[in-house]
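Prompt: For my understanding, could you write out one protein's sequence and backbone structure tokens?
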Amino acid sequence: MPQSSRPKTGEEALAMLKEGNRRYVESLTDSDPCMQKRPELTHDQDPVAIILGCSDARVPVEIVFDQGLGDLFVIRVAGNVVAPSQIGSVEFAAEKFGTQLVVVLGHSHCGAVTACVEALINPEQYYSPNLQSIVDRIRPSVYNLHELATASGHDVDADELIDRSIRANVRMSVSQLKHGSRILEDMVSSGKLLIVGAEYDLQTGKVKFLNC
């Protein structure tokens, strides 16, 4: 979005969304391949994958994977953290739709992971209780990396620590999904569900799948 067209108030942003939806509805045609199956989705959905991703506006999941309406069951939360509501959402999609793939998608320059690293480097850093709850969920994946980085007595390279922490956080979320739900654990053990981790590079647009 050009900086000049960026809305300056909430009301202007709301008007922009309303106008965008009007254009979207007007553009719906039977000849649009993406929209041909739209009427079917009114009653049911059959997503090919479940994506647990970050809320970051720079990571639009359907666009990143070049998928259309109804193709992905997307769960987005800051820092792609795993909490009971996220586990329940994955359980729902895996059981109800028979979706056999879950991808935990982190990304470079993640603000939530950065906040956690900053909190470890500077314990005096203050966050609201709600944001702190997200930081606390990320902290276990970052803590050991921070301890190793500081063990030498040298200054911590924050950028490198953030990069490594992003991947560690993805791996932790994958583990929590695999072992934080008996339903998902049984589905993984029986081969009915595959849970993998990945990192999206904001600069290149590439998704790298991780060994978890």
About this structure: DSSP finds eight helices and five strands in the chain. The chain has a mean pLDDT of 90. The first strand starts at residue 49 and ends at 53.
